[in-house]
């Protein structure tokens, strides 16, 4: 097959490209330029989307012996991922930009361009496994190393995208990948993993949102109230908060029982943030919208649901109709509208939906 290897400049994507080439595929390395100004995104070895990362990817491609190109997708990334991130927070929701990037950029814009150029598949360094089902459907399963499993952020991929995807690292551990990179002479063998959100340069999400949104948001200032409606603090923007948040509330008055308080609700129009005890965060029912199915859409499912990257699996019953109704068999805490609920049947990813409401 002719394969585009998406090379971020990190160790995982470099080894994935090397394995694809070693398997006999005709591989071309591609680094995605996602920032209009790479120096405005994270610098140093913690992240991606920097000039340093592009150079690391090019050097890895040279060692592997494959052609290498840089594709500028910065405008598409800004519109589909960065602007979406800002709009979701301004609306009082908590998005996951990594899922949106996979859905809109890596397995849509990149895959569309690759197929148009005559390639057959896109290979990435994600930790997940693809298997052929009995009915010929391509199934996505959790990685062999559950500690590195990234199937959650891939739960937005549909069957057409999975059919044209390769995840060469799905059966390996991170330690094995680093050892292999060193044995292949790849200089990124010891490069630290990326963390946080690639386009937030210092990792301060609230500060970044405050700078970018400012007075653009209708909720650039407001009050923090307790469940009785009594004002216990003020804030500069409700977009700096998420459901379940405990730190950074800067409350002027402690709770009567002295226990910590958590964000229970965000009202984006008035800018009111409601806080209360942790037990009030418990939810047992979720309503999901905009479902994305990895194969045929189910009608009913008894399986598990994961609500955040590297979060715990929770047993659940799911009904699919006009919306995706999820009944949790044990409570979850700190679940926010805008998060993705990814559904599993054993290790197989069934699909995902965006959480619109909780109860």
Describe the structure in your own words:
Its EC number is 2.8.1.13. This protein has 359 residues and is of the alpha/beta class. It has three domains: 147 residues, Rossmann fold; 64 residues, Adenine nucleotide alpha hydrolases-like domains (SH3 type barrels), CATH 2.30.30.280; 78 residues, Elongation Factor Tu (Ef-tu), domain 3 (Beta Barrel). It has a six-stranded antiparallel β-barrel with strand order 12-15-14-13-16-17. The chain has a five-stranded parallel sheet with strand order 3-2-1-4-7, sandwiched between helices. It has a four-stranded mixed sheet with strand order 9-8-11-10, with no helix packed on it. Helix 1 runs parallel beside helix 2 and helix 3 runs antiparallel to helix 4. The longest helix has 20 residues. The radius of gyration is 21 Å and the shape is globular.
Q: What summary fits the major beta sheet?
A: 6 strands, antiparallel, barrel
Beta percentage is: 25-35%
* The CATH architecture of the largest domain: 3-Layer(aba) Sandwich
Number of domains: 3
- Uncertain residue ranges: none
CATH class of the largest domain: Alpha Beta
What characteristic shape results from the CA principal axes?
A: globular
The order of strands across the largest sheet is 12-15-14-13-16-17
User: Count of helical segments?
Assistant: 7
Fold-level CATH name of the largest domain: Rossmann fold
């Amino acid at each position: 097959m002719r394969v585009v290897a998406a090379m971020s400049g990190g160790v995982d994507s470099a080894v994935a490209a090397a394995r694809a080439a070693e398997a006999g595929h005709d591989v071309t390395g591609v680094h995605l330029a996602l920032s209009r100004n790479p120096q405005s995104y994270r610098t140093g070895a913690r992240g991606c989307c920097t000039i340093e990362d592009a150079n690391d990817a090019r050097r890895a491609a040279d060692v592997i012996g494959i052609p290498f190109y840089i594709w500028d997708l910065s405008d598409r990334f800004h519109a589909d991922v960065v602007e979406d991130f800002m709009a979701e927070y301004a609306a009082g929701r908590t998005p996951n930009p990594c899922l949106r990037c996979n859905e809109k950029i890596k397995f849509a814009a990149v895959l569309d361009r690759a197929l148009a150029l005559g390639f057959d598949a896109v290979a990435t360094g994600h930790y997940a496994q693809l298997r052929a089902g009995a009915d010929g459907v391509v199934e996505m399963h959790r990685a062999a190393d559950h500690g590195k499993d990234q199937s959650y952020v891939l739960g937005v991929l549909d069957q057409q995208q999975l059919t044209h995807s390769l995840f060469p690292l799905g059966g390996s551990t991170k330690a094995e990948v680093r050892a292999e990179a060193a044995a292949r002479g790849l200089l990124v063998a010891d490069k630290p993993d990326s963390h946080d959100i690639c386009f937030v340069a210092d990792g301060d999400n609230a500060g970044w949102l405050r700078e970018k949104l400012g007075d653009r948001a209708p909720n650039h200032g407001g009050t923090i109230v307790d469940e009785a409606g009594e004002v216990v603090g003020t804030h500069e923007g409700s977009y700096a908060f998420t459901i379940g948040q405990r730190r950074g509330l800067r409350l002027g008055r402690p709770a009567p029982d002295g226990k910590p308080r958590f964000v229970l609700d965000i009202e984006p129009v008035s800018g009111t943030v409601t806080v209360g005890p942790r037990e009030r965060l418990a939810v047992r029912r979720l309503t999901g919208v905009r479902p994305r199915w990895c194969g045929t859409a189910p009608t009913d499912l008894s399986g598990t649901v994961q609500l955040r990257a590297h979060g715990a699996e929770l047993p659940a019953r799911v009904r699919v109709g006009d919306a995706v109704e999820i009944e949790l068999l044990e409570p979850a805490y700190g679940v926010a509208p805008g998060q993705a609920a990814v559904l599993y049947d054993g290790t197989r990813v069934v699909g995902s939906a965006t959480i619109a409401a909780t109860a």
